[in-house]
Sequence to fold (255 residues):
Amino acid sequence: MARNLKLTLAYDGHDFAGWQVQPDRLSVQGTLVSAFEHLTGEKTLPQGSGRTDAGVHALDQVATVMTESPIPVDNLVRALNDILPRSIRVLAVEEMPPDFHARRSAVAKTYRYRIYRGAICSPFLARYVYHHPYPLDESRMAEAAALVEGEHDFTSFAAVDPERGKDRSKESLEINNVRTIFQSQWQRHADELVYTVRGNGFLHHMVRNLVGTFLMVGKGSLTVADVRRILELRDRSAAAATAPASGLFLVSVEY
Fold:
């Protein structure tokens, strides 16, 4: 009998080309496919709660996978972690009802973006932060972040990605860039400036595009009022460049 398993995962995204399977490139999803096949002999395709990009990390990614394997869930955790590279850990495996889906059942996600503000960034930290030791008006960045809370059309902060459009049409999904952000704030933690954003969903590159724009506010190239204007324009070219992937973490997925 087929079982619907919920996997909770953590991974260091530095060496991966993102979550999604890609030809001739190392991906988190592809690595899981190989591990499951090695363990059960089945060709499965774990479905993630979202597609993290190349270099993006996850503290608590969720994936669902259908399997005929009778291996108990506790044994699966140990067996998968024996096979997987150290950069991916299975934190938990749970058996779920047939209609549970990692992406479609999710009601909220939280991301965190870390900027290291110190003069010298340790090589043991560099792959997990964006190092920016230059002047920033952090209070203005905090003001700007608050403006995106609530329900908005985030087209200005979505990647212009025709391939994603094709994927969505295949799934018969209406393209809709309206999302609700429940929390959007910057906080200082010692030498790190940390952005936390929680919402009911996120567009491709949305968090990194928001961070890139908030950085321009911090540098004085944009005003706080410009962020509201950019949001209303619904034009990706109006916003700033995408912030580097290294500082971004998927922190949690809620169901």
